Amino acid sequence: MGEETAGDLARQAANVAGALFQAGTTFFAAAAIREQTGQSTPLIEPALYAFGIWGLIFSLSLAYALYAALPSRRKDPVLRRIGWFTATAFFCIGAWSLFVPAGRLLLALSMLSIAFACLLVAYLRLARSHPGNASAATRWIAAPTVGIYLGWMTAANVVSVDSEAVRFGLVRGGGFGEALLGSVLLLAGAGLAAAIILAGKTGTSRAPQLHLSYAATVLWALFGIVVAQYDASLLTTGTAVVSALIVALVALGAPRTGRAPGVPGSATGSGVA
């Protein structure tokens, strides 16, 4: 695992602080966020109940941060590889919850994008980690946390791009142009989600919790879109159904084939991913 460094302690502290920051700022800004985002309703926005997943995300983030802060986890090779990325994502979402009520929506969108990018890196590093380096707790705490969070960030970024296009007058809100743009974004998001799921399935970590939790969250968002938009836009509703089928088929399709370095059947030697 290598020697313990000051960076390890800083990483642990950053994750705990970030998990608390994102939960605290979002809680206190919740009413203002609803007021600001309620000014427009994109034709690909999920039903209100779907946003309840934030409670699960914040709870998992805190559980993950506390687990990663244990002295015994300080030199954990997997947590070392993902820790700074998860901490950055936490702080970005905390900043997002401050920018939205202030009306700084482009800055808010940039925070969502950075959080998505950081969580994607963490997801890929988890997927490619050596199974011998990932404890059962890491597979059941870190993997679902990253998978669910990344899944929701995938959906959030797609919806936010559509919303910003309407706000800047690129398409008329509620019209065919927005429905068409929303459908294109949904299909692009489904393609991206499929690629992310495949990366998790074919990784070396032997942690199906990662890609399955990601897929389940994307499906949760898509189902929420169907529920919210079935009487507002047949086009976006139908596209959401098709997107859900794509994601489900990829998630439940062919078994993962990736092998870890140093395990039977691998052509390479052992090593730490």
From TrEMBL:
Keywords: Membrane, Transmembrane, Transmembrane helix. Gene3D superfamilies: TspO/MBR protein. InterPro entries: TspO/MBR-related_sf (IPR038330). The chain crosses the membrane at residues 47-70, 82-99, 105-124, 136-159, 179-199, 211-228, 234-254. This is Tryptophan-rich sensory protein. It comes from uncultured Rubrobacteraceae bacterium.
